Amino acid sequence: MSDVHYLTAEGYQRLQQELEYLKTTARQQLAQRLRAAIQQGDLSENADYIAAKEEQGFIEGRIQELEQVLRNAVIIDYTEKKANEVSIGHVVTVQEGNFPPETYHLVGPKEADPLNGRISHESPIGKALLGKKVGDEVTAETPGGVIRLKILKIE
């Protein structure tokens, strides 16, 4: 099951849109750049050609990655989630000591964006929260050290 990618419906749609863009617009623009670079002559010292070929490798690699992710995606269904126990897809409000409460949306690694409150269920905090209930205190070993969080709310 390590190939499973948990995504929200919005995240799935966003990745589909990126894939469509890469397969159409990005490939077409790159093909035009490659044609123009080839027309310049000697390809061995042609910086435009070399850069375009590198970008082509990146684009094709990203296309393969997105296709694999979307093929193995499991959409997080919020309607089936019970808010009494933390699971992927929940929004969890926690508090560390006397610091102000923080809210995290527990998502799959492909959608994680910690600066915007979206943490992976595979992250230290995400792992610590999974399966816990309101009022539980959890300990997470983060790169910044061990932290204790109290779960205040699960949505």
Structure description:
This protein has 155 residues and is α/β, with parallel strands linked by helices. The chain has 2 domains: 5-75, Helix Hairpins (Orthogonal Bundle), CATH 1.10.287; 78-154, Chitinase A, domain 3. It contains 3 helices and 7 strands; from the N terminus they run E-H-H-E-E-E-E-H-E-E. The protein has helices spanning 9-39, 47-71, 124-129, and strands spanning 5-7, 73-75, 91-95, 102-107, 118-120, 137-142, 145-154. The strands form 2 sheets. A 5-stranded mixed beta sheet has the order 5-4-3-7-6. Strand 6 (137-142) and strand 7 form a beta hairpin. Helix 1 runs antiparallel to helix 2. It is elongated and about 70 Å long. The two termini are 26 Å apart. The model has no long low-confidence stretch (mean pLDDT 90).
Q: Which architecture of the largest domain per CATH?
A: Roll
Number of DSSP E strands: 7
Global geometry: elongated
Order of helices and strands: EHHEEEEHEE
Mean pLDDT: 90
Low-confidence stretches: none
What name is given to the CATH topology of the largest domain?
Chitinase A, domain 3
Strand fraction equals: 15-25%
Instruction: Look at the structure and give the CATH class of the largest domain.
Output: Alpha Beta
Q: Name the quaternary structure.
A: single chain
Name of the CATH homologous superfamily of the largest domain: Transcription elongation factor, GreA/GreB, C-terminal domain
Structural class by sheet pairing and helices: alpha/beta
Distance between the termini: 26 Å
Total helical segments? 3
Supply Rg. Answer: 21 Å
- Fraction of helical residues: 40-55%
Cross-sheet strand order for the largest sheet: 5-4-3-7-6
Query: How many structural domains can be distinguished in the coordinates?
Result: 2
Largest sheet: 5 strands, mixed
